[in-house]
Design goal:
By secondary structure, the protein is α/β, with parallel strands linked by helices. It is built from ten helices and five strands; from the N terminus they run αβαβαβαβαααβααα. The protein has one domain: Rossmann fold, CATH 3.40.50. It is 41% helix and 10% strand. α7 packs across α10. One of its GO terms (molecular function) is sulfotransferase activity.
Length: 343
Amino acid sequence: MAEELCFFTKEAFVIRPTKKTPITLRMIILIFSMVFGVYICSVSLRQSRFRSHTNLIEVVVSRHCRKPVASNWEDPLIHYPVPRTYNRNECACNPVRFFAIISMQRSGSGWFETFLNSHINVSSNGEIFSVKERRSNMTAIEATLDKVYSLDWMSSAAKNECTAAVGFKWMLNQGPMEHHEEITKYFNRRGVFVIFLFRRNLLRRMVSVIANSHDRYAKLLNGTHKSHVHSADEAVILASYRPLINTTLLIADLNKTKDLIDKALEFFKSTRHIILYYEDLVSNRTKLVDVQDFLGVPHRQLVSRQVKIHTRPLSDHIKNWDAVNNAINGTEYESFLNADYHL
């Protein structure tokens, strides 16, 4: 694309003379046009070469590092990023894995991410694509991804020099579905590990979504909205709101959410991935060991300060429980009515 800017048609340099135009002025305009054209070409070429230059630096650094034992298939998944904003110093030869958590709001992704960030060598940078400009088109998406995976993304989660795995959370309504083909190619080209995290019980997720949306305006915690809490007292206050669910649209809404999850799993099935469910993480913390193995980081005891908000049976959290119960009984979602994990 950059090279195309360097070709000019004959007409581009034709200055139609008039009787009143001095030859000196015409020469000045012609020279200015040529200089400006060369400038545009040089700028475009520099931009097109920037990404390949960055990748070349990483390759050069990796050649000076002793790579860990890995199969030929795993070798492209090991990276040695060279940040532009700081020096990795003695950690320059520490290999880094790239990952992305693909999830939905109120599916436990924030809680899960706090576990990951409690690992001394893992940096998960939150919902970076919650800002619309970063997902406006594929060019903006790639630029954002490149910044994260070069370790230049600054956030409270950044471990900087000695990061062994770096990534972020990506909600399904923040761009991945619209650009799934290009993103899949990017993930496979850069060796990105994908962690799918969803909820099996979509009715519980619906309760959490409605309650969280209500609190954005109600601000039950001393006039402050909190999506996540760190104390049992705060959790009890937020759980005191019991949503009224529209039973006319209930099954259609559950179908829509299920179909969206199924599409995401289909769209990104060719990536290197692992599928997690919130309910499994709650009832079986050894799943966190599986995640550490998947990311290739040393085992650590992962912890989170977040406290679950809706801990009681759904009948205690839904205002029109009888109507909801009747609407779901006998459908494929009947199992959602029962407790699906122990707290």
